Amino acid sequence: MKGTSPAGGCLLAMSCEYRVLVEGKHSIGLNETRLGIIAPEWFRNLYVDIIGYRRAEIGTLFHPTEALEIGLVDELASDKANAIKKCKDYIESFKLIPSKGRQSTKMELRKRNSLWLKVNRAVDLNQFVTFFQLPEVQAGLKLYIETLKKK
After folding, report:
1. pTM of the model
2. Which region among 2-6, 11-15, 147-151 has the lowest average model confidence (pLDDT)?
3. Which of 8, 55, 73, 115 has the most CB atoms in a 10 Å sphere around its CB?
4. SS3 sequence, the chain?
5. Is 146 exposed, middle or buried (0-12, 13-18, 19+ CB in 10 A)?
6. What was the pLDDT predicted at 150?
């Protein structure tokens, strides 16, 4: 990842098997609580599984070194080309290993969150959309976007 990755960018990263973040002024995390909104439960569960309850509760964006220390990213890179190389090296490291056992293990580790999402997808989506459309939430997001435009 090159650049700041709040919310959706963080979710995309967490969905990947291996995460490499380019060092610098970038950050990653869920800052929903600081914006007055709530991430969907399946998203929060994954985040808590990776970084722990307390860090997730605070709603901070983490800079590269801290993101690495807490396990939100697996490695840091000096630039985009170096990040891509590190990811390719990671993928290459599994070429000689049979994938069935590794794949089954990953699916078992992710089963709880996957099952929850399958069972609760419609309710969760409805809750998120309803909350997101509240006038006070929209007003807060508008202020946040205006702040970003000034940077």
Report:
1. 0.81
2. 2-6
3. 73
4. CCCCEECHHHHHHHCCCCCEEECCCCCEECCHHHHCCCCCHHHHHHHHHHHCHHHHHHCCEECHHHHHHCCCCCEEECCHHHHHHHHHHHHHCCCCCCHHHHHHHHHHHCHHHHHHHHHHHHHHHHHHHHHHCCHHHHHHHHHHHHHHHHC
5. exposed
6. 80
